[in-house]
Amino acid sequence: MAAPAEIIEGFLCPMCMTDFGTVTQLQHHFEDAHTSEDKAVFQQLKGFFDKAKKKIMGDKETNPFIEQGSSSAGESGQYGAALSGYDPAWWEPQELGASRSHLDLFKAIRGARVDHFVVETNKLLIRLDKLLSPDAPTDPKRRKAFEMSVVRWIPDREVPACLTCMKSFGLMTRRHHCRLCGGIICDKCSQFLSLSFAQKLVNPAFQFEGVGFLKRTNSNTSINSLVSVEGEQHMRVCKICRQLLERRDNMTEMRNTKPPIVQLYEKLKMCIQEAENVLPQYLPMVESLSQGESRYTYREAMILRTKLVKLYEAIDQLSKRIVQFGLNQDPPPNPKQIYLQKAIRIYASNFMQENLMGLQNMPTEEEVNQMQEKRKTEIQRKIAAERQAAMEAQERERVQREKELGAPLGASDSYPRMDHMASKALGHRRQESGGSVGRGWKPEGDSGQATRIADPMLQQIEIIRGYIRQAKQARKLDEVAMLEQNLRDLQLEYVRQSQSHNASS
Amino acid sequence: MNVILAVKQYVSKMIEGCGGGMKVLLMDKETTSIVSMVYAQSEILQKEVYLFERIDSPGRETMKHLNCIAFLRPTKENVELLAQELRIPKYGLYFIYFSNVISKQDVKILAEADDQEVVREVQEFYGDYIAVNPHLFSLNIVGCCQNLTWIPAHLSRTVQGLTSVLLSLKKCPMIRYQNSSEMARKLAESVRQVINKEAALFEFRKTDVAPVLLILDRRDDAVTPLLNQWTYQAMVHELLGINNNRINLANVPGITKDLQEVVLSAEHDEFYANNMYMNFGEIGSNIKELMEEFQKKSKSQAKVESIADMKAFVENYPQFKKMSGAVAKHVTVVGELSRLVGAHHLLEISETEQEIACQGDHSQLLQKIRSLLSSDKVRPVDMLRLVMLYALRYESHSNNDLSGLVEALRRRGVADEFRAMVQAILDYGGRKSRGSDLFGNQDPVAITKRLLKGLKGVENVYTQHKPLLQGVLDQLIKGKLKEATYPYLGTSQLKDRPQDVIVFIIGGCTYEEALAVHQLNRSTPGVRIVLGGTHVHNSKTFLQEVSQAVRGTLSVPHSR
């Protein structure tokens, strides 16, 4: 027996010591060449082979390496692919893992709290609307009565101290009423809601710029609560009402305004989406055109291409503007904002890099025309060549048959002619199919097999079969169907002919 | 049964659920690692996630035009921070996902903080573990036990991690554990408790064969993490250290700036995916092939013979770096590996290690170890490992000369602290603490196998060792795993051969075991095995684990 190392390295036949490439080859060789040897020995050796086979196969994963680095390199390529990372095909597709939502609970708890705010805020807004109505009196005395009619003012005597700061009222600390909730507060705790801001709160369409709430310092009378020193109209409210109103304002503000960066970003996204829509239409066009097919016109492709180029330009411009956005402002945007803008630019340029490739290799119109022309002539040439070949074969066949049959010329004369006509008709039919095949796929003339068959009819059948095979490979199913129809016709014709031939002879 | 995919699907779902527009991903320290293992930044950028923020980073800017996806562990601190955030929201809308079960009380705290109604989603998505490979996960805990019992905080984190793996894979398993390990039993019971408590969550479509969760203890096989490795992934981890797919190359002599830290992710690096389980020799030739291919393209006639030539070659072609940064990265990594192997006699050491672990004659091995201990080029840590392996292997051998070897270590200037590790490893993984036949010298079948192996000769001396786990899993798959050593928790038992197996090693697993599981998955159709551990160890982190486990006094920094 050879040393163990040799067993691993070669597949030696124990009888004649020839080296075989694989276990199976060796086994075949042994069974073929040495079966005449003693049966028992054979069985024993066969068992050994199986064991050795298992061992060799099983041990492949722990292939010796370092010392044999170079010798195992070739082999490693062979099963390297199989050893590669993880193949998801091993395991069934995976659904999303378990999850549990707490949103309902969350909303219920939040709702209980927030509803309270919403009700209160709505009350305030209704009152505010009344106070702002154009019919509201401006005369201070009547104004006060009007204000008191909108919300019940808490009587002074019920409140000994400010409701927010708890400072007791007296000569120095006077009582004031919040115009929105009727609560009593001291002057220090008073907030002043400017009327234009109030307008905005009631009517979101109202244009407003400036400060919503003022802090007035120089007055402690409530008589002139409508006019501040600066001349801006305002009204006295308490802190709580202010907070509620501001909360509402923030939320509507969030809903209705978009910072310029977001507007830019949305434009960018629109362009990207548009490009993503156009690309799948454009790419097959280029491919088809550059193969010389005529399914799409050159103009169509050019229009789409221009559209894409424009979109890419827009994406490039927009993302550049985003990256530059606010950089020259004073103060400059915060670092995170800059980082964000950069990230958007990277996103956009990644998109362009990935998708721009298909754009560059668009053939020129002339090239397209040339290719289409070339393709046409090519197809025609091939069809002609096939017909020629078929006819020549027929001719040869007839000559041969005439030679062989020799005598009954008159009888055989009509039969090949019929043959000839049938094949002509077939040739015509195939030309049709060739025309439709002409877009993208075309069977290659394969006559090697066909020429060996003598009968021209059989020859035709064989050729058609070859086409069907090719068509199947090229996955042109409609053409397969058509060719199969042709084949059936041919076969019928053949049967009919051979019957008539038999009858005639 | 693909943990990477499981986490990735969660993250994708979060991003989808947030709708269009610019997004920020708000995470904590751990979820940052969890997400970074499954998604490359460029990939997540394509989904309009432009910013990544840590919830605990102070002074984040207010950016109302971003929508926020918050993916957080449900810890007290995170709930507190998030409640603060919601009171004064920095971003437009909030979509909140917790990586594990969150209490109703915590939901209430958050709901009460959301006066501005910015929260649109509150969900539990159970991606509460680090997915390393499709079949491998880790919890990044080094030193899970102290005084040979669980540290309570680590136990609860492990239970959370393990249950989240089950939930993300939609498996409600039968549990088996290693009988010899108290920690394994404790963990098994804790997992069972969670499954019972959250029974509604664990109601999945019943499969024909119930999945199996097998809980093992590292102490049963302390040998595997001590060995030098020769497959790419394991070798990189052993010699350079992989931390959340990142490799620090800053200490490599003459390294360029952009290669000081590289990322090796099988999900995003094709060469790595194809070569991570290849052994060192093959990788060298694969890299050479790639380089030659490029050389052909660049029509250069320079011959690339050695790894040093390759490095020179790469440096001479700056455009090559652009074209295939991945190859430049791998050439650097493999170059460094081969430098280390050469500089520290690792081949020789590894051969001896393998012989200690697998077979070998005592006196002959003792000679070899002694001669290695006297070599100048061998690193102290490698000497220590050799002696530790010897201690484990010949613990009860009549001619045991452990004291002589420890003395030799002392003479070579190995510090007391490290020499103490020899005793520590015996306390941790010695004969008394083992429940199974690690060296195969009790079971007659194993002995015969070993003898036969010795007769046949070894194909590759550097990879003879097969981890204990491989044998255990092999028996499990065949339905032959002994009930006495690996009992079921509870009364129900599996009648058929298992199909879906999740195996978890307390005290950490290794990439050698990951490779073994990978091969089992490949070679046994119909069986799917996922391996997990409190950590993925190399010898360095394993020594930390051991010293923490035995002494219980050493404080080991871990990544929580």
Give the N-to-C terminal Cα separation of chain B. Answer: 26 Å
Percent of sequence in beta strands of chain A: under 5%
Distance between the termini of chain A: 72 Å
Strand percent estimate of chain B = 5-15%
The major beta sheet of chain B can be summarized as: 6 strands, mixed
Largest interface, per-chain counts? A-B, 68 and 82 residues
Compute the CA-based radius of gyration of chain B: 25 Å
In DSSP terms (H or I, runs of 4 or more residues), the helix count of chain B works out at 22
Share in helix of chain B: 40-55%
Strand tally of chain B, please? 18
Q: Tell me the Rg of chain A in angstroms.
A: 47 Å
Helix and strand composition category of chain A: mainly alpha
The tally of helices of chain A reads: 15
Instruction: Average the pLDDT over all residues of chain B and give the rounded result.
Output: 87
Q: Biggest β-sheet of chain A: count, sense, barrel?
A: 3 strands, antiparallel
Low-confidence runs of chain A = 1-8, 58-86, 217-230, 407-453
Shape of chain A: elongated
Number of strands of chain A: 8
Please give the oligomerization state of what you see.
heterodimer
- Work out the helicity level of chain A: 55-70%
Strand order of the biggest β-sheet of chain A: 7-6-8
InterPro entries (chain B): Sec-1-like_dom1 (IPR043154), Sec-1-like_dom3a (IPR043127), Sec1-like (IPR001619), Sec1-like_dom2 (IPR027482), Sec1-like_sf (IPR036045)
Subcellular location (chain B): Endomembrane system
Protein name (chain B): Vacuolar protein sorting-associated protein 45
Organism (chain B): Batillaria attramentaria
